[in-house]
Amino acid sequence: MRHIPTSAEKVEHLKKQARRLQRNGGGKLPDLLDRVARGAGYDHWRHVMACLQGAQAEDGVALLRSRIAAFQAVAVEGGRRIEVTGPEMLAVPMVMFAAAGDAWLLEPHTQECMCLAFHGERVESGLVEHGEQVTMRFHGTYRLDGDAMHFQTDLPLVGNRTVQGLPVAELREACRLATESFQARFTSAASRAAVEPLTEGLIDLLIDRGFGHFDRAELQQAAKHGAQYSPARNELVYPP
User: Vertex 79, ends 76 and 84: CA angle to 5°?
Assistant: First the structure.
């Protein structure tokens, strides 16, 4: 499928066009969405949404690369910085820090780590590109113990070592905040009080509204798999 640069603003503009046609008696909204999509150079409305998702993923990767470069620079300069990543960058909150010439990306939930800089020298990050997809390859695991930090990695430069002099107390707090942020986000998404069952009546209503890029069969299939609708977020929520 061809990739067309697509922003959220562009998608909203196309939706408004389709709704305007519907108000003028143009037909069903899903059909009109396909029509305006084709008029804008897309194959159909699903193509629009696929391009939007691809653009958002690219933006997140570009932001992550930028932050990695920034923390590497701080480490090389001997500075100090700690940051918890946001949802615009990574779906799971992580901790990035630079101190004492080192820089690391920490995954608090699995206690995995990625070395970004060591002893004032940049280290090639574990971001691996597979065509249009990017995955993260962690270099090993870490453990906060008292006032020390233990690393067990497959990097010859680092290996397995215990490091003193890092801001362990601040890192412990940042990891706690990252974990709580993820749990709060997950709880909000999974909260039954915030979702509605995908009944046939609700499916009818969502289709009339032109919800996402779903058709009736897809929504019915989602319901069979336990998906529910979140009005606050205007999206489907699946069980864990």
Answer: 105
